[in-house]
Structure formats: structure tokens, C-alpha cells
């Protein structure tokens, strides 16, 4: 840490001196984050007061020496470093270097406060917000999940989104697809979604693509140039996710998918080169259940399609979880929970579990093993 650094003690942290008077308790309002620090001579409390972002370490040392003459610069740097390792500090210089406008910093003030929980002297909350702004996301399907994710991306500060759909808004959508209203009935979803989001966030650049996915090549065409793909559609069943999976693996683009199955929501992420893929998952599930392949064959041949059975409240739970994973994927502020895993959320008990695990690639996967690659356009 250079002497020009301007440490700022995070505004989200409450500090109090506990009963014996020799210790500080920091971060008590944040669940599972409280830390107690010895401070018999009051030097830590004074240091915290001085780290308001207006002083560099030289200036802080000058102030500290007035009451603690024995303190050396090396001592100060060590104290600051230890507080940084505990996750208590940011470098105020980041605000002067950011490309975010004053209006953006005001709009995303709460985002920045949240991201500060994960920031350090070398990785600022502003940097995390900038990563979101620079992302290019493709959303396949702007029904309930896709339109909800689009709205969440606008709230997060993502400014470049491609939406892909061929459907129109129906009255029956309005019980759960909250991005649309009665005036949108009959309109193409991509048009209604783009218009409504532009009114909410005029800086977001939306590319609307009227397209029905028919192959991996179709998927590859619309995915090209994306930082991340969100699969929020499910038809044609099984085939669509396989096409998207193949396209994303070929382009080395991470993707996340999900949906609602009456009483639960499910979501999963595929990170090319780091996790297994959907084909790996199919192989794993078929090996675990000998009847699964025949069931899928019979199901697809039957033409049965589950009618929409979701209420908005349940979808909001799923949308929130998926949007949080997207923010993690784009910034790395916290570990992914769904990488190579299908997470199932029970809407009755509000509990979740790992339903399927494909974190490791399957040795017979035709996509993860390039020697056996083949197409799934059929």
C-alpha cells in the first residue's frame, strides 16, 4: 500500500466500545460480521475517525503522533493493513478515478453501499459498479423470468442488453410478468419490454431481436459478443437449453438458466472451462436413473405442455436469486452458488438444496471433450 492511499473506513460499519473499555466491537449491525479489536490506548478508535477519505497515510500519521508519539509509519501501515484484511476499508482515491458520472453515483448509491461490504483498498465498490456497467448481457426469453431479470439488470446498472423473443403480451401474462401492463396486450414482448425499461432507465441500450430459436447455430448468432447469457425460456423443452449450452461452450460465454416447476424454482450456471455443462448433467442423471431417458422420450413424444401455474410472489423469489447470481458472475464480489449445480428453491418452506451437481465434466460429454464433439441441432 503506497503512502498516497487515502483509506476510508466504510460507512456501513457501526463501531462501539464494549463494556470493559479496552475493546472495540465493529460491524455489529451486519449479520455474522462483528469483530472485536483490542484498543487499550484508543489508537484504533482515533485511526478510524481519521480515515474519512480526506487524508493520505502521511497525513494520518501526522495526526496520530500528536497523541501517540511512539507510533511509527510502519506501525500505522500495519494497522491499516490489518483493518483492510478484516474488510473495513476502501481507498477514497477510487472515486476520483471512476468514469461513473455524479448522476450514476447518486442513482447507484445503495448499490455502492452494498458492494462496499466486499470491497478492499485495492478493489473498490465503484470498480464493481463499473464492471456491471460494462457488461453485455443476452436474455433469451422475456416472459416472467426474463422480463424480471431485465428489470433487475437495469437496477444493477447494466447498460447493454440484448433481448430475444418472438412472443406477444397476453392478458394472462399480467398476473406475474410485472414489466408489462394492460396497454401492452397484443404487442411484441421485446417492444413492450424495451419501451418500459427505457422509461425506467434511459441510459440502457437495448437490442431487441424478434427470433424463435431453432438450432445451436441460431443461438450462437444471437449470443455472439455477450459477457453472459441468461436462458429464461424453456421451449422447445430440453432442446433449447442444449442449443444454448452448445453455443455458449463454443463461444466460451458463461450462462445461467432457470424456471419454475409449480412448487419450486430452479436455477443453474454453466461456466465454460470451469464446470460441467448441460450435456454432462444429462449423462449424470441418466446414469443415476435408468428410466430417465425413456421418460424424456415419452414425454417429448406426448406433446404435453405444463400450463402456467405460477404466482408472481414465487417468481420474484426465483428472479431475485438469479439476479444475485448474475451480479456475482459479472463482478466476482461473492462466490457463485449455482456454478455447475441445479439449485432448487421450495416455495412452501423457503428452503433450498442442490438438486443436481455437474461441477465436474463428465468423461463422455461430447461438448466438454473436444475429441467427441458433435451437434445437437436435431
TrEMBL record:
Lineage top rank: taxon: Bacteria
Domain spans labelled THIF-type NAD/FAD binding fold: 128-366
Family annotation (Gene3D superfamilies): NAD(P)-binding Rossmann-like Domain
InterPro entries assigned: ThiF/MoeB/HesA (IPR045886), ThiF_NAD_FAD-bd (IPR000594), Ubiquitin-activating_enz (IPR035985)
Pfam family, one: ThiF
PANTHER family per the UniProt record, alphabetical: ADENYLYLTRANSFERASE AND SULFURTRANSFERASE MOCS3, UBIQUITIN-ACTIVATING ENZYME E1
Protein name as annotated: HesA/MoeB/ThiF family protein
